[in-house]
């Protein structure tokens, strides 16, 4: 009999974190049927030994464990591993989990409830970052976006407005959108899937509780993706989803990022740019603008200006950087 929820767990050399990760699967308070689908992507450490140990514990508790994998010299990548874990699973709903993260006991229950209400949405959740002080600005963005901003801020450099390790969706919807890109290391498979999800009219919903301990590791696969690769995908998606519908538009940033965006646009989109704007009078007077990464470094002047003009995010303006 098929499970109600399959936890999708790709694994590659995850020995230091697997015990805590798998223990969090066992601690779920979801009352429906669950299975854990693990795909081992050529791990060279003791990951498989740990998985086999937890298979016994989980199955005694009524959680079926399905294990697949390969022993090729090199890993095939996160996209391939997730696709394989999904293919060997049976659940009507998919709960994605990274091998270095830890679920709170109520995660599957609360996200399953939300997914039943929103069958064509990706369901995310708030997170607690580990170490606590890592990526503070990004973590605030993950946790504090308003519901409408989950769709309006999909063009920013942060990527999907609900982070991949928190995703939960129906198998039927995944099959409609997927699979993940299997290009391997350096390919932003989660971002590409997220864009396809939006193209097919999918929604984005966040459970506003911290349901995942989300680890920051400099050596993680995500860190292998070049910023230039992400930038190219973002610009193409911005043109496809927004700029082609606008007769003209202004780039708000007279500095390096604004000029870079302009140069990255197609010729047709560049012809629609009627002005560059900025809020820093000193920088404008100097004739240049030094790039600053974060939006809120204007001290709220940008947001105040937008409000004074009665501009609505998603209709009149979009955040890109």
What does this entry show, briefly?
With 321 residues, the chain is α/β, with parallel strands linked by helices. The chain has 13 helices and ten strands.
Overall description:
- It is built from 13 helices and 10 strands.
- It is α/β, with parallel strands linked by helices.
- Helix 1 packs parallel to helix 2 (47-60) and helix 8 packs parallel to helix 9.
- The longest helix has 15 residues, at 227-241.
What's the SSE blueprint?
Layout: E1 5-11, H1 15-26, E2 34-41, H2 47-60, E3 64-70, H3 78-87, E4 93-96, E5 102-103, H4 107-117, E6 121-130, H5 136-144, H6 149-152, E7 168-170, H7 171-177, H8 189-199, E8 203-215, H9 227-241, E9 249-252, H10 256-264, H11 267-270, E10 273-277, H12 281-286, H13 301-308
Parallel strand pairs: 1-2, 1-4, 2-3, 6-8, 9-10
Antiparallel strand pairs: 4-7, 5-8
Helix pairs in contact: 1-2, 8-9
List low-pLDDT spans.
288-297
Tally of DSSP β-strands: 10
Gap between N and C termini, in Å?
A: 47 Å
Biggest sheet architecture: 5 strands, mixed
Portion in beta strands: 15-25%
Please tag this protein with its features.
three-stranded mixed beta sheet; alpha/beta; 20% strand; 37% helix; five-stranded mixed beta sheet; 321 residues
């Amino acid at each position: 009999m098929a499970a109600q929820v399959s936890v999708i767990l790709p694994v590659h050399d995850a020995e230091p974190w697997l015990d805590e990760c798998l223990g969090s699967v066992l601690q779920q308070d979801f009352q429906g049927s669950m299975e854990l689908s693990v795909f081992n992507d050529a791990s060279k450490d003791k990951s498989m030994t740990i998985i086999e140990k937890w298979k016994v514990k989980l199955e005694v508790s009524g959680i079926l464990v399905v294990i697949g994998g390969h022993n090729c010299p090199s890993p095939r990548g996160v996209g391939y591993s997730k696709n394989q874990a999904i293919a060997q699973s049976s659940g009507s709903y998919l709960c994605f989990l990274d091998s270095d993260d830890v679920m709170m006991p109520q995660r599957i229950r609360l996200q399953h409830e939300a997914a039943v209400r929103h069958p064509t949405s990706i369901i995310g959740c708030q997170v607690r970052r580990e170490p606590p002080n890592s990526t503070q600005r990004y973590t605030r963005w993950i946790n504090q976006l308003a519901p409408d901003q989950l769709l309006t801020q999909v063009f920013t450099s942060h990527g999907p407005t609900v982070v991949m390790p928190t995703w939960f969706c129906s198998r039927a919807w995944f099959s409609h959108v997927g699979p993940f890109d299997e290009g391997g290391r350096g390919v932003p498979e989660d971002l590409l899937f997220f864009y396809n999800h939006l193209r097919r009219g999918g929604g984005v919903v966040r459970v506003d509780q911290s349901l995942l301990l989300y680890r920051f590791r400099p050596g993680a696969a995500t860190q292998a993706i070049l910023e230039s690769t992400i930038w190219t995908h973002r610009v193409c998606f911005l043109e496809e989803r927004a700029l082609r519908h606008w007769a003209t538009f202004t780039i708000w940033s007279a500095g390096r990022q604004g000029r870079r965006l302009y140069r990255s646009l197609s010729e047709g989109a560049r012809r629609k740019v009627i002005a560059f704007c900025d809020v820093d009078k000193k920088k404008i007077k100097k004739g240049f603008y030094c790039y600053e990464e974060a939006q809120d470094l204007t001290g709220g002047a940008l947001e105040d200006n937008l409000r004074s003009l009665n501009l609505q995010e998603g209709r009149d303006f979009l955040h890109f950087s």
